[in-house]
Amino acid sequence: MSLSNPWFALALVGVLLLFHIELFATLLNLARFSRPLPERLRAIYDKDKLANTAEYAGASARVEVIRDAFFLGVLIAFWWLGGFGWLHHKMAAFGWGEVWTGVATLAALTLAQTVLSLPFQWWDTFGVEAQFGFNRTTPATFIGDQIKSLFLMALLGLPVTALVIWFFATQPWAAVYAWVSVALFSIAMTWAAPRFIMPLFLKFKPLEEGPLRQAILAMADRLKFPVKDVSVVDGSRRSSKANAFFAGFGKNKRIALYDTLIEGHTQEELLAVLAHEIGHQKRGHVPVHLVVGLLEMGLLFGLLHLGLKSQGMFDAFGVEGRPIGMGMMLFSILYRPLSTLLSVLTSAISRRHEFQADAYASEAVKGPQPLMDALMKLSADHLSHPMPHPFYVGLHYSHPPLEQRLSALESAKS
Questions:
Q1: Contact 319, 330 (CB under 8 A)
Q2: pTM of this structure
Q3: 236 with 259: CB under 8 angstroms?
Q4: Which tens digits make up the pLDDT trace of 18-56?
């Protein structure tokens, strides 16, 4: 390991630079609370609400910064003490062959990362979220969720990982085969997740017959948006925060409303929120995001193919030879800066799509006011930052800040 190795220099600069960029963005974002709010936002963020929101943002940021600093320290210590080379030696000693040695290596590192992250998840859930009245998760539910998640990671992740490693161990066109296989798996999971995986964590029940169900189905019919089912999700069992989503393809689309969303919003607001989600479908945003995701995945596998062929990448982390499973983990460290840059671009596309979906919803419900009311309620109820810093928005926001969305909707009104 030496700075003369470009892979080593790239990895070291990358992990340190990303940490400091995130820290800088967080500090800029927290400092924005000292700025005066626009008149429109003062109606929903009075002095006490703003102070509570700032306190919540600071507490959440504290968890994130300490967690990121901890993992940065663990990574550098493990790296410079020869941990990657040591782990490869231990796994190779079992004699399981290239594929299963690689799977075991990645599983061990993923499990270690998961276990180390648990104290921070606990702190965030039972500390910060509970302090500000959001958490409704019990310790038993929290532990059960972790066990289920690990089980699903093993059940679904290990076979896919084994297949990808086998491609790179045996096939000259490994990157293409891996790209196609993982893409097909991702598309299949989009269909399977709401049917088989999400019910392991959330309870779905049909929305009762009544004015809301009739209004939702009538709007979907008027907008020529086929809906097979409308469900209520027991999100209140884990958090007071509200949400809604669509699932399914073609004529099998399903609407899912969190019970917390139904409790806190009028029928007109709920229809506007759903019209916004329908807008994403009608404006073709879903296939755009799918294509962008597939292109990014193709780039990832193409670069991985190059990295696995370079002994310099393995030397940078003190690993002898070119073991594929370990190489995939090492490459993920090197890929983080590029992944962050790409996420900035994809988030910018997503924010643009949100404006378009808002405009669609405004037309669908004959005016912007119901959606504006819903957005203001959600922002205030979730203690969302009323005026996040543009740099932080660029790094993390897939949705435009509240003020920008309200301004765009008001412009459409005039």
A1: yes
A2: 0.94
A3: yes
A4: 999 999 999 999 999 999 999 889 989 999 999 999 999
* Residue 153 to residue 167: CA distance in whole angstroms: 20
| Whether residue 55 lies in the annotated active site | no
Confirm if 317 and 330 have CB atoms less than 8 A apart. Answer: yes
b/e code 154-189 from CB counts within 10 Å (16+ = b): eeeebeebbbbbbbbbeeeebbebbbbebbeeeeee
Using the structure block, give the residue that is written with the tokens 């949705």. Answer: 399
Domain around 237: 204-281
Shared domain for 34 and 50, answered yes or no, is yes
Please provide residue 25's backbone torsions phi and psi, each rounded to the nearest 5 degrees. Answer: -65, -40
Q: What's the CATH number where 216 sits?
A: 3.30.2010.10
Predicted confidence (pLDDT) per residue in 175-213, tens digit: 999 999 999 999 999 888 888 999 999 999 999 999 999
Question: Do residues 361 and 276 touch, judged by C-beta distance below 8 A?
Answer: yes
| Element spanning 244, H or E | strand 244-247
Catalytic residue among 229, 277, 373, 403: 277
Tokens of 36: 């005066």
Is position 199 within any domain? no
Catalytic (active site) residue 358: yes
DSSP H or E stretch at residue 43: none
Q: How many CB atoms lie within 10 A of CB 251?
A: 8
